[in-house]
Design goal:
Beta-galactosidase, Chain A, domain 5, 9-stranded antiparallel β-sheet, 5-stranded antiparallel β-sheet, 42% strand, globular
Length: 350
């Protein structure tokens, strides 16, 4: 079988959650939990065909109830930050929960990473897939409108993990969905990602203040430590004397994808030299948040691993942070009758 299901009882929330295993013969194997829609494991082959789990996470489903680092989770309604928890829409100011200093982060403390998603379809075939749904009520975490979200995970014949997002609303709102897996292509317990080689098709990045909120400036990467237009080791310049790196304690910035037109296109790749694993990223979105795991603090993870600073990285495709306060940024606004739709693929090769 290409799909298997295991059920777990979680007395803490007085309900059960399901863990689905999707696998392709000779290819990827993914484990996805209905709690938070979290990818808890992703097995990928190295250059010699050896399989390793390349995403950080926890052993026990219950540990995802307090998923402080957002390991593997679906993020919403708004991935990234909104300044001061203030959402301006049509002259009104909606008050959002603040959970990152003075700001709103990743949908708030009760965001989509904390909810149990409904399973709407399971495809047990050549390209195994799992479809999930969550309906976010009007006023949840302060957001206006009832938002219905459908997310489909698929393991593709190409060797990829595809994530497709669809959302509709009954009232004007904002939506910015993303996937928050921490990747270490040497293995989830292999330590630092400093030697990973990263390429991003982005000539500019979003400049932020000391609380990680955009100033409005989109700065050219050339001549700065943020230049990944050609592949570079993540650790090569991460310690440079640069105000933006000090603010983020490393890389925690949104990159502006060059030539974004809404089509699914190659926006970057990650290579781990020892294993030979390569992950190509494709998306329809205008930005990608590159986070170098700067705030991991030795948290207990899978199989006895301790995840310390920069033991994993995230490439979170989506809209720019705090776009409701920046009309010059691509809009994350969604109206009744419109369909929010985007796709991201992570293709694994060697």
């Amino acid at each position: 079988m290409a799909v298997e299901k295991t059920q777990f009882e979680l007395p803490q929330i007085r309900r059960s959650v399901d863990l689905f295993t999707l696998r392709r013969q000779g290819g990827l194997e993914a484990k996805i939990l209905t709690l938070g829609g979290a990818v808890t494991s992703l097995l990928a082959p190295d250059r010699d065909g050896r399989m390793s789990d390349v995403v950080l996470g926890f052993d026990a489903p219950a540990d995802y109830l307090a998923n402080r680092p957002f390991f593997g989770a679906l993020i919403g309604r708004y991935g990234n930050r909104i300044a001061r928890g203030d959402l301006p829409l049509d002259g009104a100011h909606h008050v959002l929960a603040t959970n990152d200093g003075p700001n709103h982060l990743h949908g708030g403390p009760g965001g989509f990473h904390t909810v149990v998603w409904e399973v709407t379809d399971v495809i047990d075939g050549a390209e195994p897939a799992l479809a999930l749904r969550y309906t976010s009520r009007d006023g949840e975490e302060g957001y206006p409108g009832t938002l219905t979200v459908d997310v489909c995970y698929t393991l593709t014949a190409e060797g990829g993990a595809r994530v497709e997002y669809i959302a509709t609303t009954d009232r004007t709102t904002v939506v910015n969905l993303t996937q928050h897996s921490y990747v270490n292509l040497a293995g989830h317990d292999a330590g630092s990602i400093a030697d990973h080689q990263l390429r991003l098709a982005a000539s500019r990045f979003v400049v932020v203040d000391e609380t990680a909120i955009p100033t409005g400036e989109l700065r050219a990467v050339r001549g700065t430590p943020f230049d990944f237009l050609t592949p570079a080791a993540i650790g090569a310049r991460i310690g440079a004397d640069d105000e933006q790196l000090r603010f983020g304690r490393g890389y925690d910035h949104c990159y502006v994808i060059d030539g974004c037109d809404g089509s699914l296109r190659d926006i970057g790749e990650l290579v781990e030299p020892r294993s030979g694993r390569r992950m190509i990223v494709r998306t329809t979105q205008p930005g990608v948040q590159f986070y170098s795991g700067n705030f991991l603090d030795g948290i207990a993870g899978k199989q006895g691993a301790r995840y310390g600073k920069r033991n994993g990285l995230c490439l979170e495709t989506g809209h720019f942070p705090d776009s409701p306060h920046h009309p010059e940024f691509p809009t994350a606004r969604l109206e009744p009758g419109e369909i929010y739709r985007h796709t991201t693929e992570y293709v694994f090769t060697t």
